[in-house]
Amino acid sequence: MSYMPNVIAFRPRPAAEPLRRPRILIRAAREGQAGWRRDRDLRRLLRLDYTPAPGACLPRLRAEEAALNEARLQRAAEYDMHRHVLLMIAILAEMRAAVADAPASVRAGAGIGAAMLAQIGAALSGPAAAIPARP
After folding, report:
1. Nearest to 20 by CA among 130, 133, 134, 132
2. If pLDDT is split at 50, 70 and 90, which confidence band does 37 have?
3. What is the DSSP string of the chain?
4. Most distant pair of Cα atoms in the chain: their distance
5. pLDDT digits (tens, 9 = 90+) for 45-94
6. CA-CA distance, 34 to 14, in Å (whole number)?
7. Which of 7, 35, 72, 113 is the most exposed place for a label (fewest CB within 10 A)?
């Protein structure tokens, strides 16, 4: 008789799925980084009275962006392209702010730094980041 375990091992999914968005959206978000002022723009975008700690609002930004992306894919009338670009700018800026705010010892131990940001930027803006248009 052979031993057959009844547990199937699956590879765990990453906690944060990579963003796969159209190239033009990512390009607009990257260009918008130059004019981004965190204290002013993040509070206005999230309708807050205070500026949260760097990286603290990333889950909310990602959730709002995912909802807008779903509306974009469904070609819904309530899709707001301007807000979508602003959310993408905020996500990229918050990722950078969170990395910059982390202590150097934590960044070194976790391997987070300029190389990690470059890898994230390349993943967001590379040719595989585009979603083909629907006919």
Report:
1. 130
2. very high
3. -----S----PPPPSSPPP---HHHHHHHHHHGGG--HHHHHHHHHT-SSPPPTTTTHHHHHHHHHHHHHHHHTT-TT--HHHHHHHHHHHHHHHHHHHHHS-HHHHHHHT-SHHHHHHHHHHHHSGGGPPPPP-
4. 69
5. 999 899 899 888 999 999 999 999 999 999 999 999 999 999 999 999 99
6. 30
7. 7
Measured in Å, how far apart are the chain's first and last C-alpha atoms? 56
Share of the chain above pLDDT 90, in %: 47
Structure tokens at 118: 């470059």
Which pTM value belongs to this model?
0.66
Residue 129 has pLDDT above 50, yes or no: no
Token readout for 24 is 């033009």
